[in-house]
Amino acid sequence: xxxxxxxxxxxxxxxxxxxxxxxxxxxxxxxxxxxxxxxxxxxxxxxxxxxxxxxxxxxxxxxxxxxxxxxxxxxxxxxxxxxxxxxxxxxxxxxxxxxxxxxxxxxxxxxxxxxxxxxxxxxxxxxxxxxxxxxxxxxxxxxxxxxxxxxxxxxxxxxxxxxxxxxxxxxxxxxxxxxxxxxxxxxxxxxxxxxxxxxxxxxxxxxxxxxxxxxxxxxxxxxxxxxxxxxxxxxxxxxxxxxxxxxxxxxxxxxxxxxxxxxxxxxxxxxxxxxxxxxxxxxxxxxxxxxxxxxxxxxxxxxxxxxxxxxxxx
Length: 314
What we know:
- By secondary structure, this protein is α/β, with parallel strands linked by helices.
- It has two domains: 2-171 and 212-237, 3-Layer(aba) Sandwich (Rossmann fold), CATH 3.40.50; 173-209 and 240-276 and 291-306, UDP-galactose 4-epimerase, domain 1 (Alpha-Beta Complex).
- The protein has helices at 11-22, 39-42, 57-60, 79-82, 86-106, 141-160, 185-194, 214-224, 244-255, 279-285, 293-306, and strands spanning 2-6, 26-31, 47-51, 69-72, 111-117, 163-169, 171-173, 199-202, 208-213, 233-236, 241-243, 261-264.
- The protein has a seven-stranded parallel sheet, with helices on both faces.
- β5, α6 and β6 (163-169) form a beta-alpha-beta unit.
- α1 crosses α8 (214-224).
């Protein structure tokens, strides 16, 4: 298929591009100007590369026509900062997606696959693990805009026949994850530990999340290209929870040395525990994670050691 990845130069997008190419699909990448593809992709002649602004309809109009499946990975905000300016969060993410969907309608796009958030759309869990049927009561604007986009995808399917699939991702980690943005506890903690730097933790380290290795996450996106049936919203995670202290313990075991840590005041918007129920993805997508956390951590460390100066763009 002819696949367009919006945000294809980032951590998830670049791995997804590799996965699609390995399956024989045609790949077109759209991302912000002045970003660099990782070496594994930058010289690949099979990739079409476009730069532009996601909020500019003229820029999007360069890449949407001729595509069959669109992977929407773009997000202009982060959970921890989205509440600082909710209006910007809506303008940059929801409005931009509406422009995209209008173009998709005009050009007959077959399917849009959207990277939503399994960590923020649900809010405080009432039961664990959290299934897709759980109430959605986000505590951050980031989660609210993700939900809004999910609803617009449903509307465009009902009104205009554009099929879609929503993947509510847990916390992906792995090779090439950007560490300078302080996003992604596994990569940030591992990088700091490797360089003997202090690791700062909000709260007592008991905050628990679901972490999924990047290649497993990519497998779910590829499965979503051809999913059938009525289910269109899927949790994508490991189905197991790890606390921040658990991650530190795993890193210490891997490196064979203690790591320096500093516990700071907890943040109000941090949900204490979030672990995803991935039963629906197993039953309806035919997907399940294959890489253990410990093995993914080994792979991430090996990449960091082999690429000490590499900086992945987000």
